[in-house]
Design goal:
Length: 287
């Protein structure tokens, strides 16, 4: 089995880092992680993609990748363009996409925007992104501007050791110690300064701010309906409160060529139980 190795590419979004299995010349698979996760999200699934050139970047502001400039916004469009910049830097014309949560929403947007470049779409706990009634637009903008204004006064939490950060991540996302450790070890860095011994999250604090804009459900359904490539989704049971089962099934029904699987598990089921998901995805890609 090829171990995942570090890689970096220089892009218009800064230097983006990630993990790659080194299968140069094999069919191409770009894997995009979830919100506040990083490329290690795909370490457990990697053995099922031995026949593919698996590339898992840290999206901007995550893991070892650069943070966006102060004037830039973290949006789905920005994430999609940054992910595409990795494929472009590698010289990829057509490729498969794999995405979890935020990475799945980003992958959905890329598949709708560039049908000529995406061969197949693999999604875990995602199809499109969160939507919102149009009536909330002003409230959301006010929350976003207030959050941005308050950010300057916030301090990064400093953990005495990595073990403490792992416990916090386990509690926040209902993760096992093994899975939390994978994400945390790539997701923290030594605190800077003589008075700040310990570890801090590497992710950009702006990622926790309220998004200034969110699509309506009608817009989101139009985007999903524009996805042309074959799509395979795996969802966890029970469903997340923000994406109830009825809604995810309605969205799945909008796909021209989609298949949906539901497995008992949590939001990070691709890390906690990679075997069943890896087998489904491998069969789907082969078919």
């Amino acid at each position: 089995m090829a171990a995942l190795q570090e890689f970096v590419v220089d892009t218009a979004f800064g230097r983006l880092a990630g993990l790659r299995n080194g299968r140069i010349g094999a069919p191409k698979l770009l894997a995009l992680h979830g919100w506040l996760d990083n490329a290690s999200s795909f370490v457990p699934l990697a053995p099922w993609f031995e026949g593919y050139d698996l590339v898992a970047p840290d999206l901007p502001g995550h893991g070892a990748s650069a943070h966006l400039p102060a004037a830039a916004e973290y949006t789905l469009v920005t994430a999609a363009r940054a992910a595409l910049s990795v494929a472009d830097a590698l010289g990829w014309d057509r490729f498969h996409l794999l995405g979890h949560s935020l990475g799945g929403a980003t992958s959905s947007m890329l598949a709708a925007a560039l049908p000529q470049r995406i061969e197949k779409l693999l999604l875990v706990e995602a199809l499109g992104s969160l939507s919102e009634p149009e009536e909330r637009v002003a409230t959301r903008l006010r929350e976003a501007f207030a959050g941005q204004a308050a950010l300057a006064g916030k301090q990064l939490r400093v953990f005495d050791d990595i073990a403490t950060a792992i416990k916090v991540r386990m509690a926040a996302n209902d993760l096992s110690e093994r899975v939390a450790r994978l994400l945390v070890e790539r997701g923290v860095a030594p605190a800077q300064g003589a008075q700040r011994q310990g570890f801090v999250w590497r992710s950009d604090p702006r990622l926790t701010l309220t998004a200034a804009l969110r699509m309506s459900e009608g817009q989101m359904r139009a985007l999903i309906g524009a996805i042309e490539c074959p799509t395979c989704m795996v969802w966890a049971d029970p469903a997340q409160a923000y994406m109830p089962d009825a809604l995810r099934r309605e969205r799945a029904g909008l796909l021209a060529r989609g298949e949906m699987h539901v497995l008992a598990g949590t939001h990070h089921l691709h890390m906690e139980q990679p075997g069943p998901i890896g087998e489904r995805f491998r069969e789907f890609l082969a078919g």
